[in-house]
Amino acid sequence: MFYLLWLFISVGYAQDICVDCIDPLRESFGASTNLGLDQIAQIAACNPPAVGSSIKHDQRGNTENKIPNDSRYVLRHPSEKQWEVEFNARFTATAGVTEQQAVALRQRTEACFAQAAPSMAGPGENMLRLKLRPSSGGAGPTAPLIEINVIPSGRGNATNFAATFDCPTIIHEFLHHAGLCDEYPETNPGEVVNASSCRPIVPSNSIMSQDMINMYDRTVGATKECLFPENSAWRTMPSGHLEIAMAKSAQDLAREPAHRRAFDEGWCTHHNIAPASGNPLIENHSARFSDQPRGWRMHYPASNIANPTGGPLLYRLGCQCPVNNADCTAEIATLKTTMTAFYNSPQKNYGCPYGIIPTVPQTIAMEPGFVDDRANGRVIVRSPPSGISLLHPAHFSRLLRGSCRSQDSKNWYDVCARYAYRHSEPDGLNGNCASVPAECRDPRTYLGGDPVSIPR
């Protein structure tokens, strides 16, 4: 009885009680008060903590028992719509890695968690943040210790982090410690025996898939560092010209499928022109718009690919419709609205200038844009977030469920995730995955639909 009383007080039950977890408690309580600790822990795990409370999840993954990944963290509920998943991780340098590099990787992890937090949304306008427990400790329960070996380089995994890991990879690997599974086809010969055709595959648009870097860059906004060689003209060119070379332009928009028809039909054309008194060179990332009969035109600067460090060129994009062509009129009106909004937006989409290969930055940018640090030979850029969650609804729900197993058969994510590291199903039939439900081959079913929009 003492254990039961302590449990209810310590976890701070929410009002939305998991009936399937409480029923066994009622049955046992009616027959005897001698509940086992494992049964009590399972009952507690099935009830998200009330506002202001927290609960510890400590479950090891076990492929044979169909529990694919660990759930080893503390789930906190600081306010009604806010959740925190806190890990207790220790980063240890291995051969070829300095202690300073291990410390830097921990700091980068904290920065990546902070950068991703505004993009981790779930159904019902709930938001979630990943955190590391401070080395000095903190209030509330302590999550189980996760040992992270810092290795010099290479693929790595959830317990072996390369010192060069970027934000998408760091978050992907920590989400394994929170119960999420890989969603990509395994190609590593040393691991393929543990995960072949039985794994549910998500081709793209998931932080747990092979598209994780692109997914992160699209949703959260990629942070890249552009390093300029010694004596490079990039280091001394006017800041406006550097911005033009780094920013997405009307040329890039014109290549997108949504806008191709206007160009394919010949209604719109663009080419570079020589600056003149009527059309002087534009010295920053902006555009001039003007009307013409049955259409419009714009002038804008873009990088000179033939001579990237020689300064921008002036381009003219002109759109003009044949007489009485309603399709063209509608098409170019939409294109003008898109171009106007693009150039008037305070948030620009930046990348490294042509010929400069981006590297993983030591500094993780918290705001979109670019930081001009050419005094140290670099520029740090971050593209704007998309306003869409980094997590799918099923991912978000799985993080809140933690080590609660009574719900596994009641949602497709857990039904399908049990096959993520199976090379046969049933056992003993290598490569036979006939018993995997068809729903597990449908990413939208498996992941609970598309990621939600970020609450404003």
Descriptive labels:
456 residues; 19% strand; 7-stranded mixed beta sheet; 3 domains; 28% helix; alpha+beta; disordered N terminus; 13 helices; 4-stranded antiparallel beta sheet
Q: Strand-residue fraction?
A: 15-25%
The number of distinct structural domains comes to 3
Mean pLDDT: 84
Q: Determine the number of helices (DSSP H or I, runs of at least 4 residues).
A: 13
Number of strands: 14
Span between termini: 46 Å
List low-pLDDT spans: 1-35
Note the main sheet: 7 strands, mixed
Shape: globular
Classification by helices and strands:
alpha+beta
Order of helices and strands: HHHEEEHEEEEHHEHHHEEEEHEEHHH
User: Radius of gyration, rounded?
Assistant: 27 Å
Q: How helix-rich are the residues, as a percent range?
A: 25-40%
